[in-house]
Amino acid sequence: NQSLHILPNRVSSHREGESIHHLLNDVAMKFLDVSVNYLSAIREDNKVVQAARAGIPVIDFAPSSLVASDVRTLAKKVLELPSASWASGGIQFFMEQLADQAGERR
Q: Cα(first)–Cα(last) distance of the chain, in Å?
């Protein structure tokens, strides 16, 4: 049994992300009979553009920014999800490394 998760991106607040989730979940339930879980949200932050222009990951460029905090939260939540057969090798290693780095920065 697979779960679907939503990650609203470039939202003004976590409340907006949750609102988007509720709307999409209602539509998915009504027309597809499928529930969509709220994973987290990534807030809009101009540090993303600045980091991209500098060629530096935003969590390194602006570790105390809103978006860096959201990425760290996302990494932790993804690691807390039940294991799936596809979550091995590259993606699992990537998420573990991201969570380890996030823990080192605190």
A: 35
Q: What is the DSSP string of 41-79?
A: -EE--THHHHHHHHTS-HHHH-TTSHHHHHHHHHHHHHH
Beta bridge partners of 6: 38
Q: At what angle do helices 90-104 and 66-80 cross, to 10 degrees?
A: 130
Predicted local confidence at residue 1, as pLDDT: 52
Show the tokens assigned to 54. Answer: 């500098």
Alpha carbon of 85 to those of 21, 43, 51, 92: distances in Å?
Answer: 26, 30, 34, 11
> Partners of 37 in the beta sheet?
5
CA distance 101 to 106: 9
Q: Is the pLDDT of residue 90 over 80?
A: no
Q: What are the CA-CA distances from residue 24 to residues 3, 11, 35, 81 (Å)?
A: 15, 15, 9, 21
